[in-house]
Specification:
This protein has one domain (23-95). The protein is 0% helix and 31% strand. It has strands spanning 23-27, 30-36, 43-48, 65-70, 90-95. Strands 1-2-3 form a three-stranded antiparallel sheet, with no helix packed on it. A two-stranded antiparallel ribbon has the order 4-5. The chain is globular, with a radius of gyration of 16 Å. The structure holds zinc ion (2 copies). One zinc ion binds at residues 37, 40, 42, 71, 73, 75, 77, 86-87.
């Protein structure tokens, strides 16, 4: 391949104006967020495994948690490191993981 990635061309891309909207699907213990990357607009799925509360049954529902979502579009992007097909963008996302 060749080519040296310099600076933050690929990774650590973040724009506070991004307000992506993802569809939330619970799959067993995982929650799958399905939507489009706000930067490259490729469709992607982001999987989150919420922390299991120590005592099951007393999870506080309705408390949104913020976590970092990152592009996982699977498309080859110029300048991406070998083996990682995404545009490198990440963004904070708030969702109810309970
Ligand atoms: Zn992409
Ligand atoms: Zn992307």
């Amino acid at each position: 391949m060749g080519g040296v990635v310099t600076g933050t061309e690929w990774a650590e891309v973040y724009d506070p104006s991004w307000r992506p909207s993802f569809t939330q699907n619970r799959q067993g213990l995982e929650i799958h967020f399905v939507g489009s990357c706000p930067r490259c607009t490729h469709g992607m799925t982001f999987n989150v495994t919420p922390a299991i509360p120590p005592s099951a049954g007393v999870a506080t529902r309705g408390a949104p948690e913020e976590f970092t979502m990152y592009c996982a579009c699977g498309h080859p992007h110029e300048g991406h490191p070998d083996g990682d097909n995404s545009c490198g963008a990440y963004w904070p996302y708030e969702a109810d993981l309970a």
